[in-house]
Amino acid sequence: MASDGGYNSVDLTWSPCSRQQISTFFSERKAECVKDLPALGGSLQDWKPGLYYGVDDQCRIAFGSTARACSFTNPDLPACRVLSCHINPDDDSSCKRLLVPLLDGTECAPNQWCLKGRCVSPDDLGSSVVVHGSWSSWSEGSPCSRSCGGGVTFRTRQCNNPRPAFGGKGCDGPDIEAELCHQHPCERNQMDFMAEQCSQTNPQPLHLLPHTASFYTWIPALGFAQGDEQCRYMCQSEGENFIVSRGSQFVDGTRCESPSRPSFGITAACLRGKCQLFGCDGVLHSGKVRDVCGVCGGNGSSCSLTSGSYSGGQAKEYTTFASLPVNATQVQIVNRAPLFTHMAVKVGGRYIVSGMGSIALNTTHPSPLDDNRLEYRLHLTPDLLPETEELLLPGPLQHEMNIQVRRRGVRAASCKMYPATCG
Questions:
Q1: Using an 8 Å Cβ cutoff, are 381 and 387 in contact?
Q2: What SS3 string covers 162-230?
Q3: What is the Cα–Cα distance from 45 to 171, expressed in whole angstroms?
Q4: What local confidence, expressed as pLDDT, does residue 84 receive?
Q5: What are the recorded GO MF terms, alphabetically (predicted)?
Q6: Given this model, what pLDDT does residue 410 score?
Q7: Which residue ranges in the chain fall short of pLDDT 50?
Q8: Sequence-distant (≥ 6) Cβ neighbours of residue 305 within 8 angstroms
Q9: Run of H or E residues at 147
Q10: Domain residue extents for the chain
């Protein structure tokens, strides 16, 4: 077979065995279909099938569905004269070579393509051979990557119908469409899901020294990695101060921390090793956000602002001064005198902030990766004394939440929320 799918377009000839087999094929009257005149005309970009079938495709045709192009080259072999393929999917160390030229239009080097067994650049050709890229059909949608907690399903397309070549333009538009699926909550939080993936690699040794296997307990590397780097399976060794990638990538749908704080309702989740942003409608890059009332794509008219301040309470006792109802959004509560009072947060009879008689340290509940998280921040003066306490809850709240204060002396607590009750 020749580089353009025809016969003998380069100086390769049929072997005696091939001649015998093709002669037998014709003599047994099995080749009646080839008597039809070609009806393709100028299709396949004037007989450059490599624009449609890349090296991986040619390897699969020659050696089976698991074959792929070799990841290294032999400088003694012209790039376009030999098809070199990895046959074993688990072996990248050896290549099997077939003495057939790559199809015309196959990319053989950056900005170079095979033509008649030679690797040529656009400068070697006239402008009439320029080929602009076009998209393939969309693939079938993938299964949801998680059974709960918000997995991802996606479909892809490739710029290979044909591939851009000889100085042509690439395809416009995205090569992937994705959306969140199975978004009902899991029993465990988003941090637990990442921690589970890290811990699964505990039995896998880390070779820090030659011939020496070291074993560690691996935990999420939040605070050390974020964005795309975080999605590349970055985990921290517990009790140590280094992080390592423990695999190719986290499971699609694993939550990540975007380098820039996403807008209200935007979800940052890993997809094929990258930290991607999904709109409140669950669609990749839709940009759709929630309004202040927590309504996806709303205009803020479905709720009202409730605000107020509180100065009561008992000394050395926790007193509930604000009960936040289910679906409350954009809640901000500030205590401006934490030297004399401190706040606590109680959900379902359990304290998640303070509650033990002393002021809390900075915390995020249930984790920095969860969408409906509570953020508690203790701001200090330059002298490292408590200056303000702040509670931030984007919402919408899934459970009723009680905000309490414990007074040592005078008061100072104020709150703003959409919509909630403030005593």
A1: yes
A2: CCCECCCCCCCCCCEEEEEECCCCCCCCHHHHHHHHHHCCCCCCEEEECCEEECCCEEECECCECHHHH
A3: 16
A4: 92
A5: metal ion binding; metalloendopeptidase activity
A6: 44
A7: 7-11, 40-44, 410-423
A8: 416, 417, 418, 419
A9: none
A10: 16-129, 306-422
Class of the CATH domain delimited by 306-422: mainly beta
Tokens of 281: 């409608």
| DSSP-derived 3-state class of residue 119 | strand
pLDDT at 78: 85
Q: Is the dihedral of CA 262, 299, 326, 153 positive or negative?
A: negative
CATH of 16-129, one of 1.10.3660.10, 3.90.70.10, 2.60.40.1230, 3.40.1620.60: 3.40.1620.60
**Residues in a beta bridge with 415:** 308, 333
R_g over Cα of the chain: 31
Give the list of residues 6+ apart from residue 110 with CB closer than 8 angstroms, or none. none
For 53, 377, 392, the CA distances from 319, given in Å and listed in that order, are 71, 20, 20
- Please name the helix (run of DSSP H) or strand (run of DSSP E) that holds residue 404, with its range, or none: strand 401-407
Give the model confidence (pLDDT) of 343-386 as tens digits: 999 998 899 999 888 899 999 999 999 988 899 999 999 988 88
pTM (2 d.p.): 0.73
> Which structure tokens are listed for 359?
């002021």
| Residue in the structure block whose two tokens are 């590349």 | 232
Residues 343 and 274: their CA atoms lie apart, in Å, by: 38
CA distance 95 to 76: 14
CB 248 within 8 A of CB 274: no
Single-letter residue type at 386: P
> Residue 33 annotated as binding?
yes
| Residue 356 and residue 343 in contact, taking contact as beta carbons nearer than 8 Å | no
| 71 neighbors 86 (Cβ within 8 angstroms) | yes
Q: Could you tell me the two tokens for 364?
A: 């995020």
Question: What is the Cα–Cα distance from 12 to 383, expressed in whole angstroms?
Answer: 83
* Residue 36 in marked binding region: yes
Amino acid in position 160: N
Is the distance from CB of 57 to CB of 50 less than 8 angstroms? no
What distances in angstroms separate CA 153 from CA 76, 139, 269, 401, one per listed residue?
A: 44, 12, 12, 34
